[in-house]
Amino acid sequence: MPTILQVASFAAVAWSANRLDVFELGSSGKLQHNYWNGNSWQSAWEDHGGIFTSPVSAVSWAANRLDVFGRGTDSAAYHTSWNPSNGWQANFDSLGGGFTSELAAVSWSANRLDVFGLGTDYAMYHNFWDGTSWQSSWASLGGIFTSAPTAVSWGKNRLDVFGLGTDYSLFHNSWNGSAWQTYWEPHGGIFTSAPIATSWGPNRLDVFGIGTDYAMYHQAWNGTAWSKEWEDLGGGFKTGNSPAAVCWGNNRIDLFGIGSDNAVYHKAWNGMVWSNGWESLGGSFSDVRVASRAVNRLDVFAISSDGMQHKAWDGSSWQSDWDTLGLAAVSSASQSQSTPTSTSALASVAAPSSSSSYMSSSATTSAPSTATTVATSAHPSSPATILEPVNIFRLVVLVLLRLV
Fold first, then answer.
1. Across residues 376-400, what is the average pLDDT?
2. How far is CA 24 from its chain centroid?
3. CA angle centred on 114, ends 184 and 300, rounded to 5°
4. For residue range 21-62, what is the model confidence (pLDDT) as tens digits?
C-alpha cells in the first residue's frame, strides 16, 4: 500500500478582482471558510460542517460561484456549492466512490466541473458535472499512482491531469474534447512532492515538482512538444511539500515553495527568463498556496503554528508583514451543514473500484510504472545538498524503487 503524497492541506481561490476564498479543515475535520470581500477578511471562520478525511479542493467557474470537494469518513467524494441566489447549499452531495487521495477539481467553462481522485486500487478516477447532473458512475482512467492528482484546463473542452507513478516519476493524460489518451504518457524524473500544473494560455502547460536533490524542477508543453529535459530551477525545498504556481497573465508564472528553513520562497517567469535566485518571503510555514485576482496581483497563503497567514503583491511590492487569518478550528459559526457521511442525492454512485471506464481495457490496465520513459528527459536527481535523517531514508527508498 503506497503512501500518497498530497498536493495541499488547504484551498485558495479567487473569482473576481476583489474576492478571495480560503478553505481549511478544523481540528475535528469540519470544513472552515474565510473570505476577503474587497475591504476586509471576515473576523471569524464560517463552519460549514461535515467531517472530512482529506484536504478539500475548491474551484470557481464564474463570478460569485464556488464549488468545494472533499473525501468523507466513508472515503466517498462530497461536494458543496455557493451561488448568489441561494447561498451555500443546505447539505453536502455525496458523489460516491471510495478514495485514497484528496480530490482535484477543475472547470473548463461555465457550469462545467471535472473531479479526479485515486481509488482504492490507486488508479485515477474521474467524474464530471455537465451543467445538469453528475455522471452516474466514476470512470477509471487506469494507472497506479503515489501522489494525489493535479489537473488543469487550458481551453474549452480540454483537460490535463498529472500524477506520480510507483517509481515517483511523472505521468500525464489528457482529454481532447472527445476522448482520453489511451495510455499514460511518461515524463520521467524522480520526485519527492506531488506535482503541480498551471497554464498561462491556450495549448500551454507548465508542470513543477521537487526533485531528490530538493531543487525545483520544471517541464513545459509549448503547443507542439514537451521540453526534452527537466529544467533545474534550483533552491532547497522540503520534501513532501508540493509547490504552488499561478498565472496572472500571458506568459507569466509565479512559483512558490517551502524552503528547508520553513520560509516561503518565490520565483517568477516574465515571458523570457526566470527571476534570478529565489526570493524569500520569510515566515515559518508548513504549506503554501497562491491565488491571483487580477493582472499583476498575487495573494499568497501559508500555514504556520498561528494558523493561516496571508501576504499580497500589489503590482509593485510585497506587503511588509504576513496577515494572520487565524486557526480555522476556533470557529463556532455553524451553518448546519450535514456531515459528509450522510446519504444524499448521489449516494448510489459506483465506487471507483467498479469497471466503468472511458478507455479501452488495454489502456486502463497500463500502470504508469510500466511505461517507457519519454524522449530524453533528465531525471531531477542530482546529489542532495540537504540531508535530514528522514530524507536520507526517503532518498534510499526512491533510488531502490527506481532500480527495480
1. 36
2. 14
3. 95
4. 999 999 889 999 999 999 999 999 999 999 999 999 999 988
Indicate whether 64 belongs to any domain: yes
Predicted local distance difference test score (pLDDT) of residue 365: 28
| Sheet with strand 104-106: strands edge to edge | 104-106, 113-118, 124-129, 139-142
Q: How many CB atoms lie within 10 A of CB 335?
A: 14
Residue-range definition of the domain harbouring residue 341: 11-403
Q: Tell whether 6 is covered by a domain.
A: no
Alpha-carbon distance of 16 to 38, in angstroms, equals 10
**pLDDT at position 16:** 84
| Chain segment 309-328, per-residue pLDDT in tens | 999 999 999 999 999 998 75
Q: Which residues in 283-311 are b (16+ Cβ under 10 Å) and which e?
A: bebebbbbbbbeeeebbbbbbbeeebbbb
- Rounded Cα distance between 25 and 78, Å, is 14
Give SS3 for 1: coil
CATH value at residue 377: 2.120.10.70
pLDDT in tens, 116-157: 999 999 999 999 999 999 999 999 999 999 999 999 998 888
Between CA 206 and CA 352 the distance in angstroms is 29
Contact status, residue 69 vs residue 57, Cβ threshold 8 Å: yes
The β-bridge relationship of strands 46-47 and 333-334 is: parallel
CB of 251 closer than 8 Å to CB of 271: yes
| Confidence label for 1 from pLDDT (cuts 50, 70 and 90) | low
